[in-house]
Specification:
Elements: H1 7-15, E1 30-33, E2 44-46, H2 49-57, E3 64-65, H3 68-75, E4 86-87, H4 96-102, E5 106-110, H5 111-114, H6 118-122, E6 127-130, H7 141-156, H8 159-182, E7 190-196, E8 201-205, H9 210-215, E9 233-237, H10 238-242, E10 248-251, H11 264-267, H12 270-274, E11 277-279, H13 290-306
Parallel strand pairs: 2-3, 2-5, 3-4, 5-6, 7-10, 10-11
Antiparallel strand pairs: 1-6, 7-8, 8-9
Helix pairs in contact: 2-7, 7-8, 8-13
Keywords: Ion transport, Iron, Iron transport, Signal, Transport
GO cellular component, one term: outer membrane-bounded periplasmic space
Organism: Pollutimonas bauzanensis
Length: 312
């Protein structure tokens, strides 16, 4: 998912529409799927960035892709394979006529974008809608990406490639865990925050967000854990940051140049004075597969190792 300043609040509003714990598929990997899925899937259409990433991680170039330009610009994983892929327009309103014309073996999408389109898609081609949202669930973002990749690997005869990608992600997390331990931060509070710089506040997401799920596998303490069955996110303020001793903050959303971080009140915070602050360069952190985990874990490790004032 592409995350610009101010984008996050629109995402929260949209994802609230899928927060329905009573649904029959609330704790399953697949939200909806066609009655008949081909045993050998070759021609696949992707309706969202996460599905595109997973297919490309398997070495599969989708015949058509929603948000094609956005994927090439922001996600980029395997994007060199998309040279011949047809653009389907936006993920929210993919070109159904093009889907029918291309006659794919499988259309892949995610519940928070495509659940309401399932019947129309199912009438065009075999369709698989994964249960993806920020609605609280028993799994985190890392486990979700691994499970989705494994399922797609089974459908396409590329389970070995799926396992290779998962092994890469786990190795990257092991490196990041080692960096955190070596800098004396294991067991200490560390948070990924999205700044709302004009309001002087920050958004903490739950464990379905990939960045939070990755951090929670790195041996840190989660300072603002969201345990409620209805908690998509929480907004915290500067006082909350000031109240956390030994805090390390990783900011997401690319806002390091905003005026808030040059104000005296920000500079006076213990976390700012300690230097345990970094801005992760990734614009893709809400959902992602194992290769996104590799990028995030490597960025976290680099950030931790470059921080001044961190105990060795």
């Amino acid at each position: 998912m592409i995350c610009h300043p101010r984008f996050w609040l629109r995402v929260i509003a949209m994802l609230c529409l899928v927060l329905e714990p009573a649904t029959a598929w609330a704790e399953t990997l697949v939200a909806r799927q066609s009655a008949q899925i081909p045993q050998q899937v070759l021609r696949v259409i992707s309706l969202d960035d996460l599905s595109s990433e997973l297919l490309l991680s398997l070495g599969i170039a989708p015949v058509a892709v929603a948000n094609l330009d956005g994927y090439r610009r922001y996600v980029r994983i395997g994007s060199e394979r998309l040279a011949d892929s047809v653009s389907l327009g936006s993920p929210q309103q993919p070109n159904l006529e093009a889907i029918a014309r291309l006659k794919p073996d499988l259309v892949v999408g995610v519940s928070y974008l495509h659940l309401q389109l399932f019947k129309r898609l199912d009438a065009l081609a075999p369709t698989l809608i994964f249960n993806v949202s920020l609605a609280p669930a028993s799994w985190g973002g890392v486990a979700l990406g691994e499970s989705m990749l494994t399922r797609l690997g089974e459908l396409t005869g590329r389970r070995a490639q799926a396992m290779q990608a998962i092994e890469k992600s786990r190795a990257a997390m092991a490196r990041a865990r080692s960096a955190i331990r070596d800098r004396g931060l294991a067991g200490r509070p560390m948070a990924a925050l999205y700044p709302l710089s004009r309001e002087g506040s920050f958004i903490v997401s739950n464990r379905q967000a990939l960045i939070v799920s990755v951090l929670n596998r790195l041996g840190i303490m989660e300072p603002w854990r969201l345990d409620s069955a209805y908690s998509l996110h929480r907004r915290i303020g500067l006082r909350d940051l000031a109240a956390q001793a030994d805090l390390t903050v990783l900011f997401i959303g690319g806002q390091e140049g905003t005026p808030m971080f040059a104000t005296p009140i920000w500079k006076a915070l213990p976390v700012a004075r300690s230097g345990r602050v970094a801005f992760l360069p990734t614009p893709y952190w809400t959902f992602g597969g194992p290769l996104s985990v590799v990028h995030l874990a490597d960025q976290i490790a680099d950030a931790v190792l470059s921080m001044p004032g961190v105990p060795r």
